[in-house]
Structures are given as structure tokens and as C-alpha cells.
Amino acid sequence: KMVLRKLAFPFQLFMGVIGIVLIPFLFYWLCDALGYDFTFTLYLILVVIMVIQSALVIWESMLVPRSDDPPREPKTPYPPATAIVCAYLPNEQGVIVETLKNLLKVDYPADFQLILAYNTPVSLPVEEELRAMAQKETRLTVLRVAGSLSKAQNVAAALKEARGEFVGIFDADHRPVPDVFTRAWRWLAEGWDVVQGRCVISNAENTIVTRTCAVDFETMYGINHPGRAVFHQFAIFGGSNGYWKTDVLKEIRFSPLMLTEDIDATMRALAKGYTFKMDAALISEELAPETFRGFWKQRIRWAQGWFQITLKRTWEAIRSPHLTTRQKWGVAQLLPWNNIYALLSLQIFPLFFWWIFAYGLEHVMHLIPIFVVTTIFTFSAGPFLAVRTYLFATPKIKRHKWWFVIYFFFSFIVFAEMKNLIVRIAQLKECMGETTWNITPRSRRES
């Protein structure tokens, strides 16, 4: 078993990079031997798919609202609010105290409660400091959740102690700005059930990985999430800096069986008719992985979790009577289509290799103009997104202009395909039954 585990990743990497090209090539060879040649039709289909995908990326980025603010005053008075911080303490012991201190500075005009729900296999010295904080600060409750192995179980335990009418969920490395709960309630009082805020990288200057993550997060939370919320007519809960009406969260709950319990909860809540709002001005800072290894593990888990949700929740959402046709189309694009596109992103190459192998280079020369034009348009989506990201970036990240210049070129040369590779490997991991939760280290030393 140990040998098989060691060989699993090389096999997945080979299949994700070489196999995704080699297997279609061999398939075309087999079809040719049987007297079938549908490759030109397939080529045209792939070209259309690539153009549509790029057009969707560009269109979504154009839909980002310049400003989107809740009413100055809520329709109903500010009710009690609860912040829940979840932590796997061995990984978070270096940051958790500062996180709690920061959350206790929240500026909220009504009763505010802060709950730390954590799990740890061994007792740690920092627990004494946490208990001392709870004795001095009446707003703070510290819960060591016995038997917990997941964030979902920690949240479930915290909900039993929550007295707020709405709940903000935070990971242990988050530093929200002081007015987040006030602003969140102004949206919830308008009738929304969940409000998702914007996450900004706080350790962006540490390494090249954190700098890349910082710009990528600006793209995700400053462009992708707001644009898709307009396009699809629903937002998604991203796991942290999200604000739920307490009764809704108690009904939906988080599943400890899913790698991305946040997306799973989103899809189940949407299928039941609950509404999600994205607010890019609702800001909380978080730590990015400082090493490529940490980044890789984090993104693999995210991609595998999204694939799990695709397999388990797509049909449930499509069948829901609470979603409009446009929202169902958005679910289809967000879940199955993005997973399928990762498999299709390189399929032009085995087609060209097959044509050169079977018919010679001259056979493909007349296709070069179409290929060049569509490739330029397809590649243009990445740089266009980088420009839009810079325009909508938070001041802290925007002042580093060279990060965006590097991302401008890196995004369409390397980063976009690396994301597709991560999705393909995550799909293989899920199919091979690898569902181990990989913790994201908080520093290079921990990594």
C-alpha cells in the first residue's frame, strides 16, 4: 500500500500532462485504423468551445459592478451577532490569538459574541492563553470540540452556543475590517440569507507564491465572484468571511464528508431557495501559502472538493423548483462545465499531432490561420482578466503594479493551464478514492 501511495502522484501527474494528450492521439489512430475520421469536425467543435469559454470569461469580468452598497441604515434594528472562528489548533497556534484579538475590535452597535471552536489531538500551551482570554473577555467563548475531525464539526458545536441572529464564519488566519458585521446585516436585513465578503491576502510580500496568490485572490474575489453573481444571479459562500442567518445555517449545516463543505452548503442552500449575495467591499485579510507545495495542496483540495460537489449536487440543483433557468445554467457552467473544460483545454494538440503524424505537415497548413486567430482570442482572456483585476484591486495589492504585469503574462502562458492541470489531477484523485484532507501550512517552516 505504501508503494502504491508513492506511485499514485507520479501516475496522476503523468496522466494529467502526458496522458491527456497521448490517449486521444491513440484513439484517433485506432479510429483511423477502423476507417473513421471525424477529427476535422472535432477540431471545429473544440475551436468553438475555446472561443465561447474565453468570451464567457471576458463577459463575466465586464459585469462587475463599479459600486454595490447596502442601504445606509438597515430596515430592522441591529440584532445580536455571532462570529465563529474554526481552527485545527496544531496548525493555527501561531496565529489564533491575534485573530481573536482582531475580531474583538469589531465595531458592531448591538450584542456581539465571538466563539472559537477548535480541535486538536494533543493539548497545546496556547490553550492556557486562550482560556485566560475567555475569562477576561465576556464576549469570547472558547470551545475545544472533543472528537472533532473537521471544520464542519467545529461549526456544529459552535452553533449550539451561538446567540446571534446571524453568524459570521472565519478561518483562524482571518483579519476582518471593523465594520464587517454592520455592513453584513445591512444586506441581510434586505432579505438575503447569506452574504459573502472579499478575501485579501495579508502576507502578499513574503514570497513569489504569496504574491501570485495575492493577485489571484484579487481576480477571484474582485472579478470572478462579483461578475458571476451578476451573470448567474447567485453568489457562493467561500468558506470564510461569509455571513449566514443563524436559522438558515442551522438548517443547512456543513457536511464533514466533503472536502469543500462551503460549496456543498451553498449548493444545498440554493436548491432549497435561499439567496446569496456577494459584496466585494466586505473585506477580510487572510494568509496565503508561502511555498509552492502548500499552494499545490490547497488548490488540489479545492479542485477535488468542487469535483465532489459536481458529482453529488449538480442534478439536485438542476431539478430544484427554486432556481430560475438562468441560475440552473449558471450551476451547469460553474460545476460540470468547468470540470469538463479542464479535460478539453489541451485537446487541440493531440489533433494537430495526429494530423502531422498521419498526413504530414502540409495537411495542417491551411488550418494555421484559424488556429492562430482562435488561439490569440483564447489567450487574450487571461491578460484581459489581469487588466480588469488591476482596475478593481484593493489599494493594498494594487500599489504593487509589477505583480499585475507579471501576472498579465504568467496568467496566459502558465497559470491558466496549471489550474486546469490541478483540476485533472484532482479528478483522478477522487476517482482513485484519495479523499485525505491536506492541511494548508501557515508558514514555510510548518510546510
- Main β-sheet, in a few words? 8 strands, mixed
What value does the average pLDDT take? 91
- Indicate the percent of residues in helices: 55-70%
- Taking strands numbered 1, 2, ... along the chain, how are they ordered across the largest sheet? 3-2-1-4-7-6-8-5
Radius of gyration: 23 Å
N-to-C terminal Cα separation, in Å? Answer: 25 Å
What's the β-strand tally?
Answer: 8
Q: What is the overall silhouette?
A: globular
Structural class: alpha/beta
* Helix-strand pattern: HHEHHEHEHEEHEHEHHEHHHHHH
Number of helices: 16
* Percent of residues in beta strands: 5-15%
Poorly predicted sequence stretches spanning 5 or more consecutive residues: none
Write the layout of secondary structure elements.
Layout: H1 2-33, H2 39-62, E1 81-88, H3 89-92, H4 96-103, E2 112-119, H5 126-136, E3 140-144, H6 151-159, E4 166-171, E5 175-176, H7 180-188, E6 194-201, H8 208-232, E7 242-245, H9 246-252, H10 261-271, E8 276-286, H11 292-319, H12 325-344, H13 348-359, H14 368-392, H15 395-398, H16 401-431
Parallel strand pairs: 1-2, 1-4, 2-3, 6-8
Antiparallel strand pairs: 4-7, 5-8, 6-7
